[in-house]
Amino acid sequence: MSTATIFNIQKFSIHDGPGIRTTVFFKGCPLKCLWCHNPESQENKKQILYDTEKCVLCGTCVKVCPQDAIKIENNVLTTDMDKCDFCGLCEIYCIQEARQVVGKDYNVGEILKEVLKDRIFYEKSNGGVTVSGGEPLMYVDFIEELFKKLKEENIHTAVDTSGAVNFKNLERIAEYTDLFLYDIKLMDDEKHNEYIKASNKTILENLKKLSKIHNNINIRLPIVEGVNADIAHIEKTIDFIKDLNIKKVNLLPYHDIAKHKYKKLGIDYEEEKMSKPSEEKMQCFVSMFESKGYEVKIGG
């Protein structure tokens, strides 16, 4: 049975498809978006989130670590990740809640059991299950197996994808997917390489191919001032999707609520390069899409 590393199972989600949903977040992503809201999703392995502001250097984690991976020297706590086996004892015994193991391995049966607990909410709200990440289609075997079982249970399925995968992965799960939430981050390939650390050519080509075999694709556009919050980007996006089988667009204004995660992971957060677009600008973009006949929503 397939296994996958999951970093969150979010209940009562209302921004990842229709109705009340359970969103399953997978670790691992081929992209490195400058504004990534889930930096703990980028690596496809377990990690430790460590909050230096909460830690009082009591030394309890040092004492309980069976791998002798945690040290305090010169009033600085460090973890030897080559020794750490993510047993979670440091998290359990930390009274200050300064440590957290991110990532847990699940098989399909375990995820299915978890999401089926909320079946009544899906039925009452026309909701269902969404897989997100990271990039969930890096686990295509897992997703295919899970979605087959969900369709047997008559549960709505959605995939939130960057599109930065082999098209065969999209093709394999299209039959079992009711809704694709497909990200377009930048139309300009040079800027895409600068801010996303990857080309957009595969992403855009995959969207063209997917629109030929699937009739329910929502486009998601993160809007980040300083990166892509400009009319030229919106015009290029509209021009690109005008002949595709797409009717709905979600505009996602930038926010910085995840920046504390970067500090816990020891990653620099380049917030000086980004800011939230104005309400006026967002409404302008909404009008641009609506004038072309698209159903538009700000937010998920």
List its salient traits.
300 residues; alpha/beta; TIM Barrel; 9-stranded mixed beta sheet; two-stranded antiparallel ribbon; 11 helices; 13 strands
Describe the structure.
By secondary structure, the protein is α/β, with parallel strands linked by helices. The chain contains eleven helices and 13 strands. The protein has helices at residues 60-64, 89-93, 108-115, 119-125, 140-152, 167-174, 189-196, 201-213, 231-241, 259-265, 279-290, and strands at 3-13, 21-26, 47-50, 70-73, 76-79, 99-102, 104-107, 128-132, 156-161, 179-183, 217-223, 248-253, 295-298. The strands form three sheets. It has a nine-stranded mixed β-sheet. A two-stranded antiparallel ribbon has the order 3-6. Helix 3 packs across helix 5 and helix 5 (140-152) packs parallel to helix 6. The relative contact order is 0.15.
Strands, count: 13
Name the CATH superfamily assignment of the largest domain: Aldolase class I
Helical percent range?
25-40%
CATH fold descriptor of the largest domain: TIM Barrel
How would you summarize this macromolecular structure in one to three sentences?
With 300 residues, the protein is of the alpha/beta class.
